[in-house]
């Protein structure tokens, strides 16, 4: 070849000779190839091309030559997918634990040395009368009972006295339906449009008679992909309606009247008397009358619209979200004419209208390094909120609130991954600013730092990995504009005067306060074995300064920076996962312990009440847990012995004291999930150890003689209270709990007043709860229904507690900061339900 090279260089160019016969042969061969014509003349633009449209795995729309290259363009296939899901649910609800009542003794008291029945016409409130078995009816025309008056057995018509059931509770039932329809439009295998519509409704006859709740919801969303930008819009609508709001404690009052009604009085029979109602006492109400056609109503609607613009491709990513929401509440609450404390009736209309505008922007840039082990990201976040709230009480009282706040942060994240040594690490640093027109101080330095290290093959064990995470956060916040604190006015009343409570006052404003400052540290260690067994432990500490609470001043509600407090705690957890062909299980066990103490209080606000009544409440006490229970207590000497008076009964201190801590010692939770083929089973337990509750319900039931305790102990005589006499000698004075020679106001339970000595009614709040148990199956169907699911479940099924009242988790009048106070709190519910789900 080298020898012939000079000849090649000197050779002349040869022009090819083309003939029609030769070209025909070429065409025939090309057709047999079924692909395209070969370019035999070095000019593909002059050649005819043939291709089957599915040869390349897609339909061919066009073939062109661009810059000397063959461009085969696919035909974009347009596809519309439609699907959805329908759910229907039925629930039956029953009340859980309720206070123990006596059914032996009737309305009355000691009279002339013997027990006497005293009817409703006497206004008698006590149930310290004779045993119901010793009474019968006289058959007379009696306004409060069609059977007549009660008289001693043997002196009437022989019909024994009835024991009436005055419970206001019933079995509740709720039915709900939900429908979701989703559409997906794709072109050439890429999503272009994605839309979803959801709608649902529920109707419930609640566990309280004459109470019904309804709910309706509707939402729609649409997402569009325009090249590299995603645009999504959503709209949601929610409407709830209740027969009776409980903002003024109306339902608790109804419950109180029902429990205090003597066994010999029938509320149903006396609900509609000549004067609208007949109650067992002029100082009480007939709960049936209060519930029937009272004109009360609660309506709430919530509307939200949002628009999201997002770009995720490339090194720079950004997302812009803006939304506007409108919340509207309409309350009609009051008491009909003839009600105790409101003989002329009272009715108040309250409306609350909130309009909130929200804008959030996020942007990030991925930082590239020469070393692939390193990666980084710079990000910025900005959030602007505008909140407006208007509250009107029948135009007599008007409250207007507004806040504009800016929250921004700049952050950097650095990650490191050494695949050879199975080490991963990361560092996140940021600084936030918070600016608001309602805050007296703006903050521009709020640093955050978060770091983690992960190591596989921990300590040389191949299947074990470890991860350690530590974080320090500083952030500020303010109370939400428009949040109602009207329930704080309950602190003006004692437990005996609570029937007069009717909230009509809101806070004057949210301006001029320092933001609530938070400093938080967390440290977490997690060990994992084959991603099947995970053990973790976490320590945390949060210091909160300048916390804001409502204060009553000259009849006005004012927000003030009152206290600082520290919350420290720990959490331990264990998760075990098993996954085989037919069997799956996920079991978790967690232990949580916390301690929250008040570290500082503004001058003049130590022992400031937060929620409850003037005589018993939760309070801010320096050095004590936040929300400690404060109330009356027995007098004690230097050795903590109870001091006994000359009559043999304990003496009461004139100074309120910290008598209880509502915070539990710890909480343990256990969750077990099992799956076998098409079946699944879930169960969730919770054990709360410690925490104390003031059982004010028990105290008032004792006072009026309606509790089971007074029935069991009222005939006790010769009892000696443990303690010391005022002469420093051990007490040796025997007493009778219900002496025949003393007025009823001096017995064991009435002598200390309407709610007794608060410290005597502090009880343990320990509770073991079966939160949820469910069993169900899912069946896939190939044709029109993709999946059919059915679930049976029960919640709050088991409630075992040392506490003698209702569920210790229930709140006083549904108020926040009222944990640990039980004053005729409504019982919790156990729920039995079934759910049918059809996915198509």
What can you tell me about this protein's structure?
- The protein has a 22-stranded antiparallel beta barrel. A 4-stranded antiparallel beta sheet has the order 24-25-26-28, with no helix packed on it.
- It is globular.
- It folds into 5 domains: 18-75, no CATH class; 79-96 and 169-330 and 360-367, Maltoporin, Chain A (Beta Barrel), CATH 2.40.170; 108-152, no CATH class; 370-624, no CATH class; 639-835, no CATH class.
- It has 840 residues and is mostly beta strands.
- This is TonB-dependent receptor-like beta-barrel domain-containing protein.
SS element count, helices: 6
- What's the helical proportion of residues? under 10%
| Strand element count | 37
Q: Kindly state the mean pLDDT as a whole number?
A: 90
List keywords for this structure.
single chain; 22-stranded antiparallel β-barrel; 4-stranded antiparallel sheet; 5 domains; 37 strands; 840 residues; 50% strand; 6 helices; mainly beta; Maltoporin, Chain A
Report a brief summary of the structure.
Helices cover 6% and strands 50% of the residues. The chain has 840 residues and is mainly beta. The longest helix has 14 residues, at 20-33.
Question: Helices and strands in order, then pairings?
Answer:
Elements: H1 5-10, H2 20-33, E1 60-66, E2 69-74, E3 78-95, E4 108-111, E5 114-117, E6 135-137, E7 150-152, E8 172-187, E9 190-205, E10 212-226, E11 229-242, H3 250-260, H4 287-291, E12 297-311, E13 316-335, E14 346-367, E15 374-393, E16 397-418, E17 423-436, E18 443-456, E19 464-477, E20 516-529, E21 533-553, E22 556-579, E23 583-601, E24 608-612, E25 617-620, E26 628-631, E27 643-644, E28 657-660, E29 666-676, E30 679-689, E31 692-695, H5 696-704, H6 708-713, E32 724-725, E33 762-764, E34 767-780, E35 787-801, E36 821-822, E37 829-839
Parallel strand pairs: 27-32, 31-36
Antiparallel strand pairs: 1-2, 3-8, 3-37, 4-5, 6-7, 8-9, 9-10, 10-11, 11-12, 12-13, 13-14, 14-15, 15-16, 16-17, 17-18, 18-19, 19-20, 20-21, 21-22, 22-23, 23-29, 24-25, 25-26, 26-28, 29-30, 30-34, 31-33, 34-35, 35-37
Protein name: TonB-dependent receptor-like beta-barrel domain-containing protein
